[in-house]
Design brief:
Blueprint lengths: L7 E7 L15 E7 L11 E5 L6 H4 L9 H10 L7 E5 L12 E2 L3 E2 H16 L9 E6 L1 H12 L6 E5 L5 H4 L3 H11 L3 H7 L8 H16 L23 H8 L3 H5 L2 H8 L3 E7 L6 H15 L3 E6 L10 H15 L1
Parallel strand pairs: 3-4, 3-7, 7-8, 8-9, 9-10
Antiparallel strand pairs: 1-2, 2-4, 5-6
Helix pairs in contact: 2-13, 6-8, 11-12
Length: 339
């Protein structure tokens, strides 16, 4: 299918200087896949959108081939060619870790992945492709953990992007994350404990639902509550694995990373207000209750005076990549109008 695209996809290899010596020993040389729309080769410069995958997925997941349906990039390519969307460059970075994800933030437990995006990926793409090298023409979008990463990038680094889309992005941790802890505790116990589970996880991934929740909690703990001086795998869990009872002092560290917490500060409100578009959606039947997080986030955006577009659709948490058919054209329009 990719061979019949109107635009093209290129692979950019980056050294990842700020990922060298990361705590997990993950590779610091990374690929970035870049979609260049038709017309950009003729000298026209176009906006760019960072596209961040969910937990357990990477840049290649977004490009996954199916004989039955088009992937996100192929569909956007069709929309551009049909005039349904302004052209935009899509940037697919690799921020995977051995725990299945980085949450796209800087962490002493995982590495400086947000810095990697801002200081290495964006400048490299601007140098090699016909982007408009300005924050006014740059956006970020993601699903689930990628939606969290998109939110945090916009909130933590004002002036880097001017529009964002978050599809069921991780937020409202007390509602969306806390119920997962019991299942994660079951998964860890079935696997022989945290250390045994962490040793095995990179060799085959989670084997069932509770283990998937345990894997996510491990990755999120490395991002939100790392414990470099503690025993392997050097994280503080937000619950007691023997009883599944909440550890309030550790969960407080998680809540400090909640996008709702950041959006509720004067600095966060100012960062949201400066954006040309905040696209927020979630399925009305999201298994993690992220529709409640999306509603709260949209309310924070409205209170801040940010230009929010909110949508709640009939669906769950998975199989929602089709939502990019709505958000990417909206981002492309907002970025084209703002530059």
């Amino acid at each position: 299918m990719l061979a019949r695209m109107h635009g093209r996809i290129e692979r950019l290899r980056l050294e990842g200087r700020c990922l060298k010596d990361n705590p997990l020993g993950d590779p610091h040389e990374r690929d970035v896949y870049v979609y260049v729309p038709p017309g950009a080769d003729a000298g026209a410069r176009v906006p760019a959108v960072l596209l961040l995958p969910g937990y357990g997925s990477n840049h290649l997941s977004i490009l996954s081939y199916s004989p039955w349906s088009k992937n996100t990039v192929e569909r956007f390519d069709e929309q551009v060619a049909a005039g349904e969307s302004p052209p935009a460059i899509l940037v697919l970075p690799d921020c995977m870790t051995r725990w299945g994800g980085s949450q796209f933030i800087d962490s002493e437990g995982l590495g400086r992945y947000q810095t990697y995006l801002v200081e290495e990926v964006i400048p490299a793409v601007d140098a090699h492709f016909p982007t408009v090298p300005s924050s006014a023409a740059r956006g970020v979008a993601g699903r689930s953990s990628g939606g969290f990463g998109a939110l945090r990038l916009a909130l933590d680094r004002p002036g880097v992007v001017s529009a964002l889309a978050t599809h069921a992005g991780d937020a409202a941790f007390e509602v969306s994350m806390r119920p997962m802890f019991t299942s994660a505790a079951i998964g860890l116990e079935q696997a022989g404990g945290l250390a045994a589970f962490a040793e095995r996880l990179p060799q085959g991934g989670p084997r069932n639902g509770p283990e998937f929740d345990a894997a996510f909690v491990l990755a999120a703990s490395a991002a939100y509550s790392a414990d470099p001086s503690g025993p392997f795998p050097h994280v503080a869990l937000p619950f007691d694995p023997a009883s599944a009872v909440l550890r309030p002092e550790v969960f407080a560290r998680w809540l400090a990373h909640d996008p709702l917490t950041h959006a509720g500060t004067p600095e966060g409100a100012a960062a949201l207000r400066a954006l040309s578009l905040v696209y927020v959606d979630a399925g009305a039947r999201d298994e993690h209750g992220l529709q409640f997080a999306a509603r709260a986030l949209a309310a924070r955006c409205r209170a801040a005076g940010a230009p929010v577009h909110y949508d709640e659709f009939d669906g769950g948490h998975r199989g929602t990549s089709h939502r990019y058919e709505l958000s990417l054209p909206m981002l492309a329009r907002a970025l084209s109008d703002a530059r």
